[in-house]
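Appendix B. Chain record.
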Amino acid sequence: MHALHENSAPAEARMSAGGGKRRPGSVGRRALGGAAMILLGIFACLAAAYAEDEAAPPAAAAAEPEKVDNATCLGCHSDKDLKPETERGKTLELLVAEDALKGSPHADLACTDCHGGAKVWDEAPHNGGQPLTMLCADCHDEEAKQYSGSVHGKLLSAGDKDVARCSDCHGRHAIRPAADRASSVNKFNLSKTCAGCHQGGRMLKTHDVGQPEAVTHYIDSIHGRALLVDGLIVAPTCNDCHGVHDILPSEADGSRISKANVPQTCGACHVLVEEVYDKSIHGQLLAAGDKRGPTCITCHTSHEIDSPLRPEFKLSIDAKCGACHLDRLERYRETFHGKAIALGRAGVAACYDCHGHHDILKLENPNSRIAAGEHRLATCRQCHEDANPNFAGYIVHADHTDREDYPQIYWVFVFMTGLLLFTFLFFAVHTLLWLLRSAALYIRDPKKFKAQKIHARTDDEEYVRFKPLERFLHGLIIFSFLLLVLTGMPLKFYYTDWARWLLDHMGGQAVAAVLHRIGAIVTIFYFSVHLLTLCASIWNNRGVFKDPASGRVTLRRVWAVVFGPDSPMPNLQDWRDFVAHQKWFFGKGPKPQFDRWTYWEKFDYFAVFWGVAVIGLSGLVMWFPTSFTAWLPGWVINVAMVIHSDEALLAAGFIFTFHFFNVHFRPEKFPMDPVIFSGRISRSELLHERQRLFERWDKAGELKTHAVRDEWDSWRWIALPAGFTAFLIGVAIVILIYAAMYTRLVSG
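Structure tokens predicted for this chain:
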């Protein structure tokens, strides 16, 4: 080193003497000299290190697991009696067949290539009795990385010993490639493999698996049937949706079944559907990060996926749409379509028939199926081929309680509701007062009350009150009215069990609709016959309109006949009878005596005119909507539905409650007055309730004219049971109606 310094000093002096300029070649020689010195130093260090290694004793090599051939392992594990027990008393199955690896991709591997952890295999139990380490990751490192980040891997890292590991899915020794039909992860077998944890056993008792019926639902789904029954290899199984080794919970952002990723997962097979969905309002909501945006499983579910062509899917779709569009669902259920769907009729329009399937767009979008104009008309014509532009103006989700947006429907609803409430309230009070008065008379003198009732029914002297044609027409009224109520009320009260039961026993709502129309035709028939016979009677007896003195038709005479005692037209005497009846209810006057028609009978008579006109006309609008909307706006259908529904409820409730009380329920008549079937009224009953009529007949000498001369005795055995059956049906129906109304009011 000193020599180096000494040699370097003159050089530095020479550099200074030369004014800082170096001679050519001096730099290269100095660099070579420095490099030589560095190399000498490195060689010296290596030599010293080598000398130390040689001098030191050899170190022990790193410990490696002992290698054991398979025959040695099978020396013990082929023993059928090798069934040791753990400290907890669990028996371990350690038997391994000699050909266990035959056909497996692992056939050329040694046991210790997969089983690790034990340093010495001669010791039993191995690894000090602790579980051996599975060395799958040594070969399958990429799969192992995916598994460690999966829901299964994270649970395993957290200490869950029951979570699925490699062998739970792929098997133990008899592992086969996934393409092998014998493999537990083959597409045809995978659902069964997953079911090992996700369908039953201890896992369901100790873990929150989430959907324990998932595998069962999958097997019954369109995907499961396509794969497992039809053998379509393109049909998805568990790993096509959930992933293979990288399975994540649905709430994880990277999960294939997270809400944001479901469309892409399904779109892997349903490519065109995904493209359409992405452009829809639902797809745009999801793309914008709006959690309200529904995905495939919102409508199709995750594992219970069924063919959208099957009726079951159509019958369930309104509830699925209603989960988000509850207000729309409530209004849809008020329409015929919504009620029929709820009652199991799949042949009517469901939500997607109008709004679209995956291509749902906003109403304002000109390409929407329900956009005003040609698009909406084309949508209507899918079912109503002769639909016109006015028909397309029918308000599907109209709210009859919304005065601002739907004033015409609102005011009709208010009027009909007011009419119903007023009628029911008025006659409820009237009926209650009558019942209390009759009960008081019975309590005061029960013997007299019973004797009078018995005498009225056993009196042999009888007179004709209703002619055969009138009784026949009333029979048609009973038949058609019961038919209309039995087939119509289930539609109004579609949410009740009895409505579904009735329709099921009729053959379904479609059959009920046909029967309802038959009832309407019978109604039109009997009403027309009555009007014709009424006109014929007026014509045949036109002489009564002539003044006896002048022989000419006078207004006074016409008025006297039209509003006379034999006419059902209301008159001033009816008001007097009503007032007298109310006084009798309160014990403030004698019981009034009536003529041929009482005031409540006249009300019933004209209620039929009102009902047939109102229910009939509104029913025709709904029966032939395209014909009426050819010259009327579409909202007329909405108005007709409100009128038809409320008037039908009013008619059914009134007939089966107040009319039945006036005729059958009141104590004087209970359990049934057969007069409308027999046409007869006894002398005793005439004197007790219709004394004015008896006195008129007696004064005019017409008692013999009205005496009974018919064949009632020969067919009463048919008429009375039929009438009583109809009576009981009516009572049952009105009880069900009131129960349904109460349920609706209570539940909101």
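Further analysis of this model is presented in Appendix C.
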